[in-house]
Amino acid sequence: MERTYDIVRKRPINPFVDWGFKYVFGREENKDLLIGFLNLLLEPEVAITDIRHLNSELLGDSPELKRCVVDVLATDKEGNRYLVEMQNAPDLVIRQRLVYYACRLIDQMGQHRQEWSYGQIKRVYAICLMNFTYERNATLREDYQLRNEKGDRLFSDLLTIIPLQIPCIKAKNASECRKSYEVLLFLLQSISKRMATREELLAEIDTLDLPEQILETFRRVVNTVEDDLTPEQWRDYELDLDKYQRTMGMIRTGRIEGREEGREEGRIEGIAEGREEERQRIAKTMKENGFQADMIIKCCGLSKDEIARL
C-alpha cells in the first residue's frame, strides 16, 4: 500500500536516527533547540545564548590520524566546544571514543601563531546519548572530569564527558522525571519508540510546572515533524530510518543470542565473548546488507581491517 503523505508525515521526526538527530539539533535554523538542550543539561552559571555550528569532521594535522565524523559540533561566544553524539548500537569502546574525540577538539584549538598560549584553550564538552548501557548497575547520567584519585579535587574543568544511558529512563510519563533534561530525553525516547502521538506529548508538556522557555523548547522538538521535510529530505530520512530499524532489529537478535551464550558459559568471560561475537555478527550482517564501512565502524566499533575480514 502506498504511503499517504498527509497522515504518515505528521509524526515527529525520529531523533534516534542519525539523519533525524542532525536535522533536529544540528542545523543552524534549529540552533535554539541545541542551545535549550545544552542549557538544560549543563545548567551553566551564565546561560548559553548563542552558538555556531562547526564542521562535524574532526581533521588532524597528519593524514595518518583517524578520520572522525561526529553528529553535532558547535561553539559558543566564549569559544567553548560542544560535541553531541547519538549512538544506537552497543559499542564496547565508547568511552575511549569519547575521550579521543574530546582530545582531538582540544588539539584543534592549538595555533601556530607566536602569540598563542595554552591559556587560550577553552572548555570541551563531549555528550553522548546512548541507546544502550555500557556498564552494570548503569545510571542515566554520570559526568566525568579531570580530578585527583580521591575525586574530591578538580584538576581542570577544560574537559567534561557526559554519557547519557537512555535505557535507564524508567519514567512512565514526563511528570515522573526529576530533572528538566530528563524530560527532554524522555520525550526523545517516546518519539523514537512511538510511545505516544504528537498531540499526546504536547498535552503532557502543558501539564508540567516548568518555565515557559523550557516548555517551548520541548514543544519545538515535538513539533519538528516529518511534514517539514522536502521530498529530497524525506528520501534521505526514510533511507536512514530503514537502516536504523534494521540495525536495531539485528541488535535485539544479537542481544538474545549473546545472553544465551553468556548463560551457557556461566562465566564473566563467556558474557564478554558473547558481546564480542554479537558485535561481529551485527557487523557482518550490516556489511552483507550494503552498509558503508563508516556506518559499521560507528555502530560496532570495529576497524576497517576487521570489517574487511568478515
What are the SSEs and their pairings?
Layout: H1 5-8, H2 18-25, H3 31-42, E1 51-53, E2 57-58, E3 68-69, E4 72-76, E5 81-87, H4 94-108, E6 124-130, E7 144-147, E8 154-165, H5 180-193, H6 198-206, H7 212-222, H8 231-265, H9 268-288, H10 293-300, H11 304-308
Parallel strand pairs: 5-6, 6-8
Antiparallel strand pairs: 1-4, 2-3, 4-5, 7-8
Helix pairs in contact: 3-7, 5-7, 6-7, 8-9, 9-10
In summary, what is this structure?
The protein has helices spanning 5-8, 18-25, 31-42, 94-108, 180-193, 198-206, 212-222, 231-265, 268-288, 293-300, 304-308, and strands at residues 51-53, 57-58, 68-69, 72-76, 81-87, 124-130, 144-147, 154-165. With 310 residues, the chain is of the alpha/beta class. The chain folds into two domains: 5-229, no CATH class; 233-308, no CATH class.
Number of domains: 2
* Elements, N to C (H/E): HHHEEEEEHEEEHHHHHHH
The neighbouring-strand order within the major sheet is 1-4-5-6-8-7
Name the structural class: alpha/beta
Subunit arrangement of the protein: single chain
Radius of gyration: 20 Å
Instruction: Count the DSSP helices.
Output: 11
Report the mean per-residue pLDDT as an integer: 85
What best-fitting shape do the alpha-carbon axes yield? globular
Strands, total number: 8
